[in-house]
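Researcher: Please translate sequence to structure tokens.
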Amino acid sequence: MDHDYRNLIMAIALSGLILLGWQAMFPTPSAPPQTVSETASPITAPQPTDGGVSVPGAPDVAVPGGSAIPNEDKTVSVDNLLNGSARVSINSNNIKGSISLKGGRIDDVVLKNYNVELHEENNKVRVLSPKGQIGSYFAEYGWVGKGFANGELPGADTKWQSDGGVLSETNPVTLSWDNGQGLKFSRTIAVDKDYMFTVTQTVENNSPKPIALNAYALLSRWGTPEVTGYFILHEGLLGVLDDTLTEIDYSDLIDTKISEAPTTGGWVGITDKYWLAAIVPDQKTPVNTRFVHRKDGEIDKYQADFLGPQLVIQPGSSTSSQSRLFAGAKEVILLDRYTDKEGVARFDLAVDFGWFYFMTKPIFYALNFFHSALGNFGLGILLLTVMIKLAFFPLANKSYKAMAKMRELQPEIKVLQERYKEDKTQLNQQMMALYKKKGANPAAGCLPIVVQIPVFFALYKVLFVTIEMRHAPFYGWIHDLSAPDPTTIFNLFGLIPFTPPSFLMIGVWPLLMGISMWAQQKLNPQPTDPIQAKVFMFLPIFFTFLLAPFPAGLVIYWAWNNSLSILQQWTIMKRMGVK
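Model: Translation complete:
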């Protein structure tokens, strides 16, 4: 094979190693465990400034996940916090939880249909957590205005009254509070059958003078959460502002402290790999948005918020402000529905489909369609691979014919290399003359490989970031296509009672992928350069170890794709009479 052609193939392979391997081998370190001081001062309510009404104050909460906080000689668990406060229960189709009457916070949201681990039916994913423990994470609503003293507007410690009942998709609840000075506040909360709350805040002015207020909503998180650390996935603060996606990593916000922007339409929130909490203002009302970080002792506090326009309420009248809160799973079809049918601007961008959005989204929908038809995402991956191979069939045929032709010329190329081994210039001239005489093009196989690289990365993105793949089974020992193959050759696939270290978890599917890669190399023209030959011989072993910790769905795709390529290449070589 031509030296330049080999170098191009090696460059492509090494590029793949760099892009795929760096984050797999050197993930971003997760944050150290956080502790919460009992004396950490809480944030004060939003205060007016000389220039007008201020946006909501600094963050007041923490990451989900922690279970207890030191408190004198005891610990306070999530259950104790929930049981120790007055609450309104939530029980809808997809979520359960409660709303705290102290502060009127939506701070207890558990997803009914998602387990923390695969078989832990009694351990469901918690998205929002109450204030007072390591892991507090909640949404808060309220009003700010100029000239009001503390206690005249509802705040974080306001004790609301409930109209009774359980919040469900068929039964909204209303919280109310009277400041005793002519202002009555109410907050009506509804929830749909999925994960979207609608919050309507109303102010009734029974005082003798007009008042001016701004409605706000905020999401707060206390402490830096543990993230997966892969460069292809954003986890942190994000939003769509004036139809443009904004993503801010935790570390970046720590450096900048605050990011502010006005918008009409859109949303702001905080995202994990599979879960999202986002506040959505009225899509036709201009608001000011912020992402904020503040250090309180050793605790990093993060907040996403928005402040609505000033509303003037005359004596004897009332006004309302409506916004929404999403707290749930980032299901692609659901997010698309909120975008297309309910008008939430570009809500589907909460799923990080990346640069190849125009490819990853269609690939997801194709995979989801095959899953609905076949009943198994693994079978969907196999069928999708066949469809991709058919789409690239003409280019692949051209590539394999070129490789077959080059393989046929290998004996003659070796003769030329021996004859002109001391004269590289003459060798190249003679090889080009041979290619021209035989009608061979050593670079003809490059284009299909280059074209298919974006497809591979797009499929990898789909398998990695979409929640639909999470805990999706295949057959046999693969119970979660989004997790690595759980078997390993180093304990004879479970026959020996020994658990190897993570870098030795080389399962059945990674081995099949490595074998298929080795077999495909054997069909290709072999490098005449001994160094290149050793590098290519090592690649299947390297990729086997590299891809072993990757999602099983991706490894299955690669092994199946290699197998189809081998069949196609072998057929073409047989037709051309090449051994």
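Researcher: Any highlights?
Model: Residues 1-12, 17-75 have pLDDT under 50 and may be disordered.
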